[in-house]
Amino acid sequence: MSTTTPDMGILRQPKTVLFGPGKRHQIPRIVRPLAEHLLVTTDARMATTPEFIEIIDAIKATGVDVSIYAEAEPDLPREDIVQVIERFGHTQVDAILGIGGGSCMDLAKVVSIVLANGGDVRDYYGEFLVPGPGVPVITVPTTGGTGAEVTCISVVFDTEKGMKVGVASPFLEAHTAVIDPELTLTCPPGLTAATGADALSHLVEAFTGRVKNPSVDDLDTKLYAGKNRLTDVFSRNGLTLLNTSLEAVAANPSDLEARADTMFAAYSAGMSINTAGTAGAHAIQGSVGNLTHTPHGFGISALLPYVMRFNLPERVAEFAEIGRLLGVADASAPLLDQAHAGIQRIEALLAAIGAPLDVKSLGLSPDDFDFVADQAMLATRLIANNPRALTKEAVVAILERSYAGDRSWWEV
User: Fold this and answer.
1) Distances (CA, A) of 60 to 78, 94, 140, 196, 260
2) Which 8-state DSSP code applies to residue 148?
3) Phi and psi at residue 75, in whole multiples of 5°?
4) How many CB atoms lie within 10 A of CB 53?
5) Distances in Å between the alpha carbon of 16 and those of 101, 108, 147?
């Protein structure tokens, strides 16, 4: 089978996806058949908003008992999971509603499988290690970026290990995702930028990732099946939407149409990475974020220009198509020129939303480059998705270019 063209397609997705302004009002009717006792995971800011209070009151009005954990933290520390299990593990939880950013939804998904299967979340680090389904999860994103509402992976920061690890299993897939763009209207500009950059990177890395065309055994043991025909459909859709919506949201945060397009693009990105996976930029970002205490999306945006340039020799046709999708490439021009235009447009979109384009601005020191590269090599699930072999030396070279803001081209 071809190693450059996808021969197959695969998607994993929630049972139901409900999208559109005001669709949060459907949540009580979704919850009622599933639960007598609902656990809600969210963060302290979201828990005080009128929209959240309205949703919880409406659920309670249907006769459902509701318990709330409103202490979710960014980057989902393992301690949050342990605390939720200690607090609610001895009560009957019929369903979980994860509402907020990616960490709130990832928390709901991973608590679901620990509650149902027992043990510690560490027992499930890796791929296909969850033995059975969890309790039903309803995901409700309030940012336009992570795609966690539709992915079957939760990323956990294990403080003792000093790194992010993934729990990846089809059993983490949400029962229902409710995507209401109105919930993002109060999203702070910095968070809008960071999550927008994350969504853009998901689309780029899924569309330009490695083609694996997996065997029957691979599909039964590995979550990331590689870039494929079905993920490409979502990647193209998301890239086209973000090409206009990101700049529009940056110019006018109250633009509901732009917010809706951004959330639709983030959902499309989630659908893409759910089986194609992310790649080099995500492999490197984990320790960068840990060292600099910067948002995930900003770490990604500071790396993506240089990872794209590194990968370009293996993905000229894909980056050229991105150039055409984004309306900046002349289809009659040489493919390499089209690819350059596509990469430069991605960078322009990152700049337009105020995302950083170099790791120096994040506060990363050159003294840390070797450590970051060593940590990146441990992210084998992501390294395997990168279209060009990513060695420790290559990671250091990417970091050096990012630190210097050197956006010249690697040789093709």
Assistant:
1) 29, 14, 17, 33, 28
2) T
3) 65, 15
4) 11
5) 19, 17, 15
Residue closest to 115 by CA, chosen among 70, 160, 81, 69: 81
Q: What is the pLDDT at residue 1?
A: 42
Query: Which structure tokens are listed for 33?
Result: 């058949």
Instruction: Evaluate whether 200 touches 243 at the Cβ level (below 8 Å).
Output: no
The stretch 67-88 carries a mean pLDDT of: 95
Q: Examine the pLDDT at 259 and tell me if it is beyond 90.
A: yes
What per-residue confidence (pLDDT) applies to 393? Answer: 97
Sheet arrangement for strand 37-41 = 16-19, 176-179, 137-141, 95-100, 37-41, 65-69
Q: Give the tens place of pLDDT for each residue, 119-143.
A: 999 999 998 999 999 999 999 999 8
The DSSP 8-state label assigned to residue 361 in this structure reads G
CB 224 within 8 Å of CB 385: yes
Residue type, 305: P
Whether residue 283 contacts residue 236, with contact meaning beta carbons closer than 8 Å, is answered with no
Domains in the chain with CATH codes: 23-179 (3.40.50.1970), 189-404 (1.20.1090.10)
pLDDT tens column, 265-299 = 999 999 999 999 999 999 999 899 989 999 999 99
Compute the distance between CA of residue 96 and CA of residue 115 in angstroms, rounded to an integer. 11
Pairing of strands 126-127, 95-100: unpaired
What are 23's two structure tokens? 């669709």
**Cβ–Cβ contacts within 10 Å for residue 61, how many?**
9
Mean pLDDT of the chain: 95
* Cα distance between residue 304 and residue 288, in whole Å: 13
Contact 175, 15 (CB under 8 A): yes
Average pLDDT over residues 51-57: 97
- Main-chain dihedrals φ then ψ at residue 98, nearest 5 degrees: -100, 115
Average pLDDT estimate for 195-217: 94
CA angle 95/85/168 to nearest 5° reads 70
**H helices present in 274-391, as ranges:** 280-292, 296-311, 316-325, 335-352, 369-377, 380-383
Under 8 Å between Cβ of 107 and 88: no
Query: Which pLDDT score is estimated for 362?
Result: 97
For 370-398, give the DSSP string: HHHHHHHHT-HHHHTT-SS---HHHHHHH
CB 61 within 8 A of CB 33: no
CA gap 317, 208 in Å, rounded: 9
* Contact present, 197 and 298 (Cβ < 8 Å): yes
